[in-house]
Amino acid sequence: MIEHVGVWVRDVEAMREFDERRLGGRGGPRYHNPATGLTSCFVSFDAGGRIELMHRPDVPSRPAGAATGYAHVALSLGGRAAVDTAVARLQAGGVTVESGPRTTGDGYYEAVILDPEGNRIELTA
């Protein structure tokens, strides 16, 4: 079981709000380490798993486009209808849908959305 995935972000609060409002997560308390400049918070999901949103002033933004390292976080929504409903709701709310919903070559039914900082989130059946 993966307990959590950590993601470096530019704006912890904006990303926390996105994860709560758009993806149904629950943000935990904000942590700040004055010695290192690290600010972070965990966002938990009902079915398990957490995303740790982390910011430190000395960690640069990633270059535009694909890069090695973090590729995406996949959230299982439980079925095709749930993916379709979520995509319609998110798209109506202005969230960028990068692809799908579709059945991939390896058999997943998914859509890929972008969070406010351009990170990919797969919504799977």
- The oligomeric status of these chains comes to single chain
Span from first to last CA? Answer: 19 Å
> Kindly state the mean pLDDT as a whole number?
91
Question: What is the CATH homologous superfamily assignment of the largest domain?
Answer: 2,3-Dihydroxybiphenyl 1,2-Dioxygenase, domain 1
Topology as a string of helices (H) and strands (E): EHEEEEEHEEE
Tertiary shape:
globular
Q: Give the low-pLDDT segments.
A: none
DSSP summary, beta strand count: 9
Helix content: 10-25%
CATH topology of the largest domain: the name is 2,3-Dihydroxybiphenyl 1,2-Dioxygenase, domain 1
Main sheet attributes: strand count, strand direction, barrel closure: 5 strands, mixed
Class per helix and strand makeup: alpha+beta
The CATH class of the largest domain is identified as: Alpha Beta
Number of helices: 2
- What count of domains describes the coordinates? 2
Give Rg in angstroms: 15 Å
Could you characterize what this model shows?
- By secondary structure, the protein is an alpha+beta fold.
- It has 2 helices and 9 strands.
- Strands 1, 2, 3, 4 and 5 form a 5-stranded mixed beta sheet that branches.
- The longest helix has 13 residues.
- It is globular, with a radius of gyration of 15 Å.
Key features of this structure:
five-stranded mixed beta sheet; globular; 2 domains; about 120 residues; alpha+beta; 2,3-Dihydroxybiphenyl 1,2-Dioxygenase, domain 1; 9 strands; 2 helices; four-stranded mixed beta sheet
